[in-house]
Fold protein-serine/threonine phosphatase.
Amino acid sequence: MKYTVESDIGRKRMVNEDRVAFLEHPDHFKLAILADGMGGHNAGDVASEMAIEELKTYFFNTDASQLNSPEAKKQWMFEVIKKVNEKIYNHSLTHEGCQGMGTTLIAVLIEGNQCLIGHIGDSRVYYFTPEHVTLVTRDHSYVNILVEYGEISEEEAANHPQKNFIIKSLGTESTVDPDFYELQLEQASYVLICSDGLSNKISTDEMAAILTLPMSIEEKGKKLVKLANDSGGEDNISVILLSMNDEEV
């Protein structure tokens, strides 16, 4: 597996509230993490930084025996996310200026070609094969509920005035219930983990077109960010791109 990590402040924001990391455990496990601090709240960058650092600590203090089955991995991730949520929430209660802070979270635990995804908020995971593009995660957003109940169309959701209204985030409540997804990665496939600064500005067709270009995975990551900036760059833009290609140009 090859990977690249990018995070850009964008063209309109004064602070980058996104945080990203790709971690490699001595016991061959990997963990990709993306956290998008809540832009409308206080100290979004504090929340996203705490999420990354706390997950990093738990990951490197975990023994492989705790991750020896799909059920064990899911239980481990659920417990870790619960603890990180409590830490951020308690910090917000005891630190002036941090009240109400929160963050989205994507955490992808990787072993070989198996991925377990923990998800909170509206950051996304896409899966690209040569034949298909799949949006793996389901946004925890107000407009997504409207779409699911048939109140508005996907096209209307894209331009809805409340499209950035999140109904679930890490650290804003005392408890949180993440969604989990499992992926088995095929050869010649890509996993794209991104904040909404990318997914709000670039279509899946544009993403797929970049991934097929004859360039390195690092260049593809930078090109995705550049296209989001060229399309307005109103938000922070973060990307973790994973490749299952044997060869990258």
